[in-house]
Amino acid sequence: MNVLELEGIRKSFGDLEVLKGIDLKVRKGEILVIIGPSGAGKSTLLRVMNMLEAPDEGVVTFLGKKLDPNRKRLVRWARSRMGFVFQHFNLFTHMNALRNVAVGLVKVRGMEWEDAERIAMEYLKKVGLEDKAYNYPSQLSGGQKQRVAIARALAMEPELILFDEPTSALDPSLVGEVLDVMKSLAGEGRTMVVVTHEMGFAKSVAHRIVYMEDGEIIEESHPDEFFTSPKSEEARKFVGSIIDRML
Questions:
Q1: Among residues 40, 144, 176, 196, which one has the fewest Cβ atoms lying within 10 Å of its Cβ?
Q2: Is 236 helix (H, G, I), strand (E, B) or coil?
Q3: Considering only CA atoms, which of 60, 45, 44 is closest in space to residue 3?
């Protein structure tokens, strides 16, 4: 079963065409990792998936329903079932960690705060932050903020979780704690689409690698195949540059 389908997706900002006819399917339980150089269109593609950016052309189908940016109720329905973990956390600074996780359950699902906070605490425990439940974002490290953001996405019990370079804004010493949580989620059979520069994570967790460049999907393959024998010249150069940086 496909959770998400993209057909012929095009997106421009002014004269710059960022996405050039993207076709992509995400299967239930699949961990799909999107990689490629900066400016490839990866983050824009992720934002189109949940209609944060409306495509200029093409169709986005989520759980069998075609999403129309003009049908606001349908878009809200899709977003309520599609978690999004942003690069820069997007936490509410005036709310503690517990309320940051609970707020979606109250505002979107209509739950009472008491019930929402009980569920939120369970998800904070899941990401190892129950002892930080009453801390505000200013009292948390970058890694802790991102784990709160992951707990917030999980609390909505989404059918699909989108991760937009979730470790790129972190100090290198904090990257591991976020990746460990994501690896744990991957082991639970969750459906995830991850844009990342963390190649070790991509190789160890992904079911499928999508390599993008200049607004197009250049290659799709299993991570073992991609990192050892990429088919396209563009991917070979990209993998070669990764190896060179490691040496």
A1: 176
A2: helix
A3: 60
Non-local (6+) Cβ contacts of 88 within 8 A are 169
Cα–Cα distance measured from residue 35 to residue 13, given in angstroms and rounded to the nearest whole number: 21
State the DSSP H helix or E strand holding residue 17, giving kind and residue range, or none if neither.
Answer: strand 16-27
DSSP 8-state symbol, 161: E
- Which band of pLDDT confidence, cut at 50, 70 and 90, is reported for residue 247? very low
**Which tens digit of pLDDT belongs to each residue from 154-181?**
999 999 999 999 998 888 888 999 999 9
208-241 pLDDT per residue, tens? 999 999 999 999 999 999 999 999 999 999 888 8
CB 22 within 8 A of CB 218: no
Interacting residues of 121 by C-beta distance below 8 A, sequence separation 6+: 98, 130, 133
- Dihedral, CA atoms, 123, 129, 130, 132, nearest 10 degrees? -130
CA atoms within 13 A on the CB side of 6: 24
pLDDT in tens, 97-149: 999 999 999 998 999 999 999 999 999 999 999 999 999 999 999 999 999 99
DSSP 72-140: HHHHHHHHHTEEEE-TT----TTS-HHHHHHHHHHHTT---HHHHHHHHHHHHHHTT-GGGTT--GGGS
Instruction: Scan for tokens 């490839």, then name that residue.
Output: 40
